């Protein structure tokens, strides 16, 4: 399947993965309030550590190994079974460890923490890394459409009062478990039933652990923020940061979808020795990611002041400032996604990749330690920004000789200019119209038109840029018909 189709399928997948909480945010935020939302986010952050320990990097490592051996069905099947048996042992141990923690050490919110075990069981049976490796994105998207729509209906049907936090937790956790379970029905015909030895199983432990090390760093500045806010501040501040972060991640999913698609393609391209082709993929991916990330950054910061009040309610007004601080991380994560996920990881440069993530994690922890106590969710958002900036700068230094930045630089400047003009227009509309759904819709539509129009004119004048070339290719196809 082509990269464009895989990107579109994975883009839909990533949006669906985030769309449920976003659709339910206006409803859930008014029903459960920041305290309930924060309690769910805080207990979810704890379960994330055990999920990370259980999967031990097999999700990323398995994706790569399956991609590299997909031309040999028997070898691919051996890799699948040996990897999954290793995952099964590790994740069951993780479940046992989590239950010990809950029963003996967690006093507050113990009931919610116990329900979260269901999502951890979803990690036990998760095999989606196999389908990512063979680039079968369509089936993954189909699964998520069904499960997410069912959970959406369940939330609006059964979550009616602030005391329904446990019901909400059941629904969210069951959606994760069922999403993982359904994928096993798609395995038929994709793999052969083969026997694997203990030696084959354990042969994956060390390389999977190498991929696990970056996961620790990622967990530190993706999840530790919520854990630290819950410990140092309170669950309401966790809820404010969590919902602002959810909005950011939905915008980011438009960009990071490309990285998920490109990882197996880049691994396969490197494996068969097509280095120049891989380099070409990398340059085009960086250009495209920047082209999308910059308007998302400016757009999110531009609409926040008029969007948050009607969308979440007055209890979440602090989300405006958190979202504005977090918005630049969309561009930073788009770049680090290309440098790390699409180059360092497929090429096996895990030491360099891990170094960049740990640098970000250390900075994040230090900034959180200093700022969360006096500023709560706003302090955590500055910690996230500092972490992403650090990761991007380190990776930029590590691959400085790979990407021709001189040729990409002028287009990046064009994107920033167009994005900034778009931001000014969006703010003028917001100040003029005030808080309303109509204001947000007009801001998004007008902002998009301004951004793409500016780039289209620039591309036409320079005969350069993604929009100009894509329109040109489309017109050429119609001429050839």
UniProtKB/TrEMBL annotation:
Record field: transmembrane: 7-28, 40-62, 83-106, 112-133, 145-161, 167-187, 208-229, 249-267, 288-308, 320-345, 357-376, 382-400, 412-429, 435-457
Pfam families cross-referenced by the UniProt entry: Polysacc_synt
InterPro entries the UniProt entry points to: Polysacc_synth, PolySynth_Transporter
Cellular localization per UniProt: Membrane
Membrane topology: Multi-pass membrane protein
Gene Ontology cellular component annotations, sorted alphabetically: membrane
Keywords: Membrane, Transmembrane, Transmembrane helix
Keyword Membrane among record annotations: yes
PANTHER family from the UniProt entry: LOCUS PUTATIVE PROTEIN 1-RELATED
Protein name from the UniProt record: Flippase
Source organism of this protein record: Sporolactobacillus shoreae
